[in-house]
Structures are given as structure tokens and as C-alpha cells.
Design a protein that fits this description.
Elements (H helix, E strand, L loop, with lengths): L4 E3 L6 E3 L18 H28 L3 H7 L9 H13 L11 H5 L5 H15 L3 H18 L4 H12 L7 H33 L11 H24 L3 H35 L1
Antiparallel strand pairs: 1-2
Helix pairs in contact: 2-8, 3-8, 6-10, 7-8, 7-10, 8-9, 9-10
């Protein structure tokens, strides 16, 4: 029985079967155009998306380093793409403006040891040009920086991946592998630091008045609650992904957290201030 040839409507390639072997376009039948099929596709997308997403989140939280290791070894079908997951978490973070995260107050820039004088000079210029007082500048800055801080999170992955690549030149892993590993680390950082931890602190503050607990009111304690699990996660994840010895793993993890923190407190912080001010002018 001779099979029917199809002329692909997408690339004009002649092929036999349901899918074009040149571009992958599907031959649509009357059933594909029915209303019932639309609901079938919608149901499949939701269940497939949810199952894959939840499975990936579970792997990240319970098995540090496994997602990156599997993905770089070619086991990808069952996982949500690491970069896509990170972007999804950033978008989710955008819907929770009450979670401060890395949105730093204007005063923290004015007190910065590296560019504090520059920040003061820029703020004075804006106050003079717009005839605002410091409270008005602070209000406008807070609104803009809340959005800018979340988008600047996208810089974390390429920069930290580059740091890993430079530090581990002898490891001979391609930049892609370091990028995927950093995407998993950054996803955990977002999940724990900006979504789970703030939610837990909000619940503690709700059931226990702030005056009775220092956990939700002391920034130093909050910083420890953010960084300690992050450091432990990196220790476990890097040991699994890179296969380091115990000493080398601790050294790399310490360097990674130090570099991460340095990036946040210098480059990220300055860019947040600089970009936010451009929108205020």
C-alpha cells in the first residue's frame, strides 16, 4: 500500500508520515481541528507541565546537584529546563512585591563605602532638578527598584558560571556545564531566599508579635537564615556535580558563596542604584 506524500506547509519539504522530517511540522487532520482535541491538548499541557515542574522542584530541593548532573549527562526529558525554571521563578517573584529580596533601600546605597559619595551627589542633583525632598526621592526609588532588582537577578547565572569556569580551568568542563550548575544553584537561591523563607518569616510574624521575636526583625539573623542553607546546599551540590574531594569541595563552596555575596554587594547593588536613577530622572 502506497503511503501518501505530503507537502509541508511550513518548509515545503516533501515527506511521508504525520510529521515533516525536515522541520517537524505536523500534518493536521479533521480531528486535530475539532474542539474536543483542543481540550485534549490543553489537559495534556497542564498535566505535563505541572508534573515536570513539580518533579524538577522536588529534585532541586531534595537532591542538590542532581538536576545539573543529569541534564549535562543528557538526561533531560523528565526535567524542566534549568534556565526556563529560573526565569519562571523570577516571574513568580515579580508577583510577590512584599518579598523584599535583593531590593535594597536607598539609604543602603548612600551608606555604601565604595560609591556612597557618588550616590549622595546623584541624589542631590535629582532633588534640585525636580524640587523633591529626600522622602519623595526615596518613594520614587522604592517603586522603580522593586522591579529593577528582580530583572537584574538574570545577571547572576552568566557571571557566576564564568567565575566557576575560571576557578575550575583544570576541570575541563565546558562553560555550558557551569551555566547549568549555576542555574540550579540560583533557582534554589530564589526558592529558598525569596519565596520559602519570606513566607516562613511572615507566618512567624503573624503568630508571634515582632516584639517577642528577633527572627523576623533582625536583618543579621535573616541574613544567616538565608546564607547558611545556601552554603550547605552548594557544598552538597558541588560535591555531586563536580566530584570534588572533601577539602576541595569545601574550598570551592566557600569561594562560590564569597563570590556570590561580593557580586550582590558590589556590582549588582551599584547597577540597581544606577539603573533605578535613570528611570527617575
Amino acid at each position: 500500500m502506497k503511503q501518501t506524500e505530503h507537502n509541508c506547509k511550513n518548509c515545503s519539504h516533501i515527506f511521508i508520515g504525520q510529521y515533516c522530517n525536515n522541520c517537524g511540522e505536523k500534518v493536521y487532520t479533521d480531528h486535530d481541528k475539532s474542539l474536543s482535541h483542543l481540550f485534549e491538548e490543553g489537559f495534556h499541557f497542564i498535566t505535563h507541565f505541572e508534573g515536570k515542574l513539580l518533579g524538577t522542584l522536588k529534585t532541586i530541593m531534595l537532591h542538590p546537584g542532581k538536576l545539573a548532573l543529569d541534564y549535562c549527562n543528557g538526561i533531560r526529558k523528565k526535567y524542566f529546563k534549568p534556565l526556563s525554571l529560573f526565569l519562571l521563578l523570577v516571574v513568580l517573584y515579580l508577583f510577590f512585591p512584599k518579598f523584599k529580596g535583593l531590593n535594597m533601600e536607598l539609604q543602603s546605597h548612600l551608606n555604601n563605602n565604595f560609591y556612597g559619595r557618588y550616590a549622595e551627589r546623584e541624589i542631590r542633583q535629582i532633588m534640585g532638578a525636580k524640587n523633591w525632598n529626600i522622602q519623595e526621592v526615596t518613594g520614587h526609588y522604592r517603586v522603580i527598584s522593586e522591579k529593577a532588582s528582580k530583572f537584574l537577578l538574570l545577571l547572576i547565572i552568566p557571571i557566576m558560571a564564568l567565575l566557576s569556569r575560571v576557578v575550575l580551568l583544570k576541570n575541563k568542563r565546558p562553560y555550558f556545564d557551569h551555566f547549568i550548575f549555576t542555574a540550579e544553584i540560583a533557582s534554589f537561591f530564589l526558592l529558598w531566599g525569596f519565596l520559602i523563607l519570606p513566607l516562613l518569616l511572615s507566618l512567624i510574624g503573624y503568630f508571634i508579635p515582632l516584639k517577642k521575636t528577633f527572627i523576623t526583625s533582625d536583618e543579621g539573623v535573616t541574613g544567616i537564615l538565608l546564607l547558611m542553607p545556601f552554603f550547605i546546599y552548594i557544598i552538597i551540590a558541588s560535591r555531586k556535580f563536580y566530584g570534588f574531594s572533601r577539602f576541595k569541595n569545601l574550598a570551592f563552596s566557600f569561594l562560590y558563596v564569597t563570590g556570590f555575596s561580593a557580586f550582590i554587594l558590589t556590582i549588582y547593588k551599584f547597577l540597581l542604584f544606577f539603573i533605578s536613577l535613570q528611570f527617575i530622572r
